[in-house]
Amino acid sequence: EYVKPILSDTKGFDAVDGVAFHDYSGEPTAMSEVHDLFPQKTVGLTERSWWGVWGADRICQYFRNWSINYNMWVTMLDSNIEPHQWVGTPDPTIFVQDAVPDSNGFYDNYWICPEYYLIGQFSKFVRPGAVRIDSNNVTQETISNVAFKNPDGTIAVVVINQQKTGHKFKIQYQGRQINDIIPAKSVATYVWSL
Description:
By secondary structure, the chain is an alpha/beta fold. It has helices at about 5-10, 10-15, 30-35, 50-65, 115-125; strands spanning about 20, 40-50, 65-70, 75-80, 95, 110, 130-135, 145-150, 155-160, 165-175, 175-180, 185-190. β8 (about 145-150) and β9 form a beta hairpin.
């Protein structure tokens, strides 16, 4: 509702490079609505944090709806869940630093949370400069996916299974096919060269 009046105006259109979304209400399809109206402008998800396979699917949906990025908000808190600027307890982060200093007064101890590996399903295999390519999304209720072509020509497909059981699926691209079973409640990334 904010974007259309600004980008419909010539001065506003010229002053804006892209549109940033924070996913605290609504659906990722709002990004497609903006893209469809103003395809010359980039769309990005600039603030939200998600966890687990449901979160991986939500990230997948951002990319399927034209987002050029996913910026996780609050990447590290300490073991007292601080510092943060809102009332209540924040959700977990991908890194936690021990709030108690070591014997030398340093805060060198930290641990990695499972979400680090979830984000890695995207960041390790989808390289800077990658372009999202079309893929059939089976259904969000069974398995979902998003596919990218990396600058080196490799294809990366992130597949998410939110079900309580494993799920058979196949990936077909330019005459090649991968058949696999993705385990229950898991995220998997498939990469291959053309």
